[in-house]
Amino acid sequence: MLLRIDHVGIACRDLEEKIAFYQATFGVTVVSREVNQEQGVKEAMLHVADGEGGGSYIQLLEPLGPDTPVGRFLARRGEGLHHVAYGVSDIEGALAAIGGTGVRLLDERPRHGAMGSSIAFLHPKDVGGVLTELVEAPPRPL
Ligand code: V0V
Ligand code: CO
Q1: Best of 59, 83, 108 to mutate for ligand 1, by most ligand atoms within 8 A of CB?
Q2: Atom 33, ligand 1: which residue's CA is nearest?
Q3: Quick one: which of 73, 75, 78, 79 has its CA closest to 60?
Q4: Does the keyword Metal-binding apply (predicted)?
């Protein structure tokens, strides 16, 4: 069901500062920057590698305000790893299959994600403390 690790999401307070750090330290390049109002984030995707199912990325996340998922995470836990996102080829089928195992779906239906993707989250309490995202890439690169 899982094709690859699509991205790791990292919560930060200052997106530009963290982008500069990742570029200087790991030589990675920003391939996309977006504001996602629905998710309450300003985010950047930094390219790591290409695979058969699509690329893999580091997603840096700055909250749009304190009353957002990443804003609450920063207040409780500080900066650090926020979620792991797995690539899937059929997100609706994956949600139906995973929901059938009893894992709570935070999104019953896919939402808009970075770079034209469809995304959905699984409850961290049902995945061993890991906020888990499913990502279906767009049919062809935008
Ligand atoms: C909260 N908890 C986490 C967590 N965030 N555990 C692991 N990883 C995280 N990131 C724990 C928290 O410690 C609590 O545990 C419990 O879950 C409830 O937390 P809460 O304080 O009530 O926090 P809320 O109200 O923010 O709810 C948490 C959830 C929420 C996960 C339900 O953040 C959510 O719906 N997230 C999905 C959307 C999202 O994260 N969007 C931003 C990324 P205790 O203390 O009770 O044990 S957007 C993105 O990735 C995009 C656009 C993309 O990839 O394209
Ligand atoms: Co993400």
Answers
A1: 83
A2: 69
A3: 79
A4: yes
- ipTM value: 0.98
Domains of the chain, by residue range, sit at: 5-136
Beta bridge partners of 132: 84, 122
Work out the average pLDDT over 1-16: 97
Out of 39, 62, 82, 133, the active site residue is 133
Contact between 83 and 132 under an 8 Å Cβ cutoff? The reply is yes
Whether residue 83 lies in the annotated active site: yes
5-136, superfamily in CATH?
A: 2,3-Dihydroxybiphenyl 1,2-Dioxygenase, domain 1 (3.10.180.10)
